[in-house]
Structures are given as structure tokens and as C-alpha cells.
Amino acid sequence: MENFFNYITSPLGNDEIDVWFKSNNICFEKLELFFDFSYGLNKIVNETYLGETSEMSEEDKQNHFMWCWKKNIENFERENIIFNINGDHLAYFIEFFNEIFYRQSEKKVRDSISTFLNETFNLNTSFTKSDLDIILTIYKSLDTNMVYIV
Predict the structure, then answer these.
(1) By three-state DSSP, how is residue 58 classified?
(2) pLDDT: is 77 or 5 the higher one?
(3) Which of 4, 107, 118, 131 has a 20 to 30 Å separation from 100 between CA atoms?
């Protein structure tokens, strides 16, 4: 239990964080791009969600998410940044938004996603091992599903 508590609460030193970023081959420009992707998706989901004014079925929620997902990918395609539509990145974000957005009755929790993303991707803050695991999961899932045109 103590190890778990340390995992989620103990900040790492700057040297440890630098080594971790280098050992995981994290490119800071891509990290910024993946923040933009995540933040853009959240913005589209929030701005088009009708659940506040009407009851949405599970199917409606999934259809809404997929519409938002495709819209976000299309927005990046306009900038010649291509992501696959399907893949583990889709599975990650579906689960994330189902848990933190669609299944939440409290608007305050749904609205906290943008704060969470800002804090997760803020390189000027301290990180715990848990924070770095979240970054790595998002980074790898988006990186492996980004189409590199040669």
C-alpha cells in the first residue's frame, strides 16, 4: 500500500524525469501535438454534448463520441497530420470519456477534464510515476496511430 501511495503522490526529481523522457524516446514537439489532439477532442465533446438538456441512450453517447473522434481527426488532417481512426488510441479515449464524461452525473467532474489534460501535459510541473505512466500511455497510443508520410 505504501508503494502505491508513493507511486501516485511522490514527485520525482528533475533528473529522474529527464532520464525517463529520454529512455521512452519522448519528443517534446510530439507531446505538445498529442496534448492538442487530446484537448481538441475534449473541446468537441463538450461543445456538442446534448446530455445536459436531454437524456441520451448509451448508443447515442457512443455515436456522439465517434462523431467527435472523427471530427477531431479531420481537423488534424486539414493540417496534414494524419491519425488512424481505429486503434488502441481510440480504445483508450473511449474508455476515458465513458468513465470521466458520459457516465458522470456531475457537470463539475465532466468539466475537470480540461484541467486534468493541462496538468498532465504541463512540463513545468512536478511529476509522479503515475503521471508519467499516463503521459506514456497517451503518447504511445497516439504515436503508433499517427501516419507518417515519407
Answers:
(1) helix
(2) 77
(3) 4
